[in-house]
Amino acid sequence: PNPKKLKAASPKNNLTYSQLRALWIIEAFPGITSRQLSEISFWSPSTANVIVKNLYEKELIYKEKAQIKNSLYLYISSKGEELIVDDFYENQNKLSISNITKIISIS
Q1: Which of 61, 57, 4 is nearest to 30 (CA)?
Q2: pLDDT tens, per residue, the chain with 107 residues
């Protein structure tokens, strides 16, 4: 399958897995820059910038300009936090169902 067409666990938000992954990274490292995001995620800087742009347009993150250097710091918005919480619980439920299925099939 084409990775660009894959949807995240929450299709209603129309996020790619890369966008969801970036959102989790930004949540884990508040104030991260796009450059740092690209290094952590092993994406090219241009890919990271496109992902950040899309997340910003969907109002899932916000940016703050640095006062000393010419950088933008990335933070997750309340809308982005809600999406991450939903994704977490959805994945927990899938994991629980998967474990129950494995237990039943072993018995």
Answers
A1: 61
A2: 444 444 444 555 688 999 999 999 999 999 999 999 999 999 999 999 999 999 999 999 999 998 887 889 999 999 999 998 888 777 776 666 655 666 666 65
